[in-house]
Design goal:
This protein starts with a strand and ends with a helix. It is an alpha+beta fold and 145 residues long. Strands 1, 2, 3, 4, 5, 6 and 7 form a 7-stranded antiparallel beta sheet that branches. A hairpin with a 2-residue loop joins strand 5 and strand 6. It folds into 2 domains: 68 residues, VC0802-like, CATH 3.30.2130; 74 residues, 2-Layer Sandwich (VC0802-like).
Length: 145
Amino acid sequence: MKIKQLSVFLENKPGQLSHPCRVLADAGINIVTLSLADTQQFGILRVIVRQWQEGLDALKAAGCVVNVTDVVAVEVPDRPGGLATILEAIEKAGMNLEYMYAFTIRSGDKAVLVFRFEDPDAAIHRLQTAGIDVVDGVELYKRTD
């Protein structure tokens, strides 16, 4: 149920974002979704790709500083209060949510969001116990075809 995310560390200056994107493109690896966060000195490009190991290898070979992180994809009702309900369940279970971002795909009447938890395995168990749909990586990638 966990999904591998590649986190690429970038200097916060013009031209840095295109490099890892070009590396992945040249390796024939499509970005399924991404998030970009920054501070004054650096940024973190978080990407999910189907071939995460190949993406990791290509980025490292190109000199990128990259880390692999486990994240969890969750179906969230696409209606007012849908996200609030999920966040309340996370809080009630005592889980710390480090960050989140949205996938570019939908699942019927639900949006799919990526969540980063300190303990992804425990989070998956607690989410499922609360009746929240956690999306399997294989199923998720099928939806992007």
